[in-house]
Design brief:
6-stranded parallel sheet; 9 helices; globular; disordered N terminus
């Protein structure tokens, strides 16, 4: 193997020799020439390389939920607008998950007005403690996202009419996510408003939302849990005809509230 020349010890002698030669050549000549040559050599010797900035790692965000999060053919979902807002704020991020498609559609069947990162971990009809939430927990363990945006419990409430039990199952699910990823930040959303005066809407939703509002107590030293209100101040008139998902205007409001929660939890920093 050919060894490279080690310049660390050779360079001082080379510089000294050049300086001596410079002085010798200019004897009897102009002293300004010697000064100029010496200055040039000093500048060459002190030249430094530009600093290299390390690339910023994107924040890994997982969307965990049911039909409202997954979306249907032709709908935008809040994920579409959150993608836009994060990009506009200059946040480096990556939506992660094992799924991409809306219900009964393909990845190109969303109604989002712009291209967005479609990765998610949402299942239409998912219930807390069901098979789908087991898959969600496995995905969190495998992908290790920095933060999960969770909205579950709606199917539990209107199908099983058991808001207290649904909140308890969601609590166990959150604890399971922390076991799978001890450093994860968990933002847990309330159920959205209802438009029709059904008992599960008028009576059970408030019970469920009230129960999960205290989930901040599940926080650990390494994992923050935060409640995000997606009910107060949002008009039921923004719901689609299925009464279970939002129009684009409602999805934009959800995305804005997720943005506020991400910043409040310290996950992102924006210039505003």
């Amino acid at each position: 193997m050919i060894r490279p020349i080690r310049l660390r010890w050779f360079l001082p002698f080379a510089v000294s020799a050049l300086l001596m030669a410079s002085c010798s050549d200019t004897e009897g000549g102009s002293s300004s020439t010697t000064s100029t040559q010496s200055t040039g050599m000093t500048q060459a010797a002190t030249t430094t390389l530009p600093e290299v900035t390390a690339p910023v790692s994107p924040i890994m965000i997982m969307h965990v939920g049911e039909g409202l999060t997954q979306g249907e053919v032709g709908t935008s979902t809040y994920r579409c607008f959150l993608d836009m807002m994060l990009n506009d704020a200059g946040v480096a991020f990556d939506f992660v998950g094992t799924r991409q498609k809306p219900m009964n559609g393909d990845v190109d069947d969303y109604g989002c007005p712009a291209d967005f990162d479609p990765d998610h971990e949402a299942w239409f009809g998912a219930i807390a403690g069901g098979m789908e939430t087991q898959k969600m927990t496995e995905s969190v363990g495998a992908l290790q996202p920095d933060v999960a945006l969770i909205q579950l419990g709606g199917t539990d409430v209107w199908r099983q009419k058991d808001p207290v039990g649904a909140a308890e199952r969601l609590e166990l699910f959150i604890v399971g996510l922390q076991a799978a990823n001890p450093d994860i930040t968990l933002l847990v959303a309330s159920l959205i408003p209802c438009r029709t005066p059904l008992s599960w809407c008028t009576d059970d939703y408030p019970v469920f939302n009230g129960a999960i509002a205290s989930f901040a107590s599940l926080s650990t030293d390494d994992s923050t849990v935060m409640f995000v209100d997606m009910h107060t101040g949002i008009s039921p008139d923004l719901l689609r005809s299925n009464n279970l998902s939002f129009t684009d205007a409602g999805d934009e409001i959800m995305a804005a509230r997720w943005m506020d929660a991400l910043e409040e939890a310290g996950v992102i920093t924006t210039s505003s």
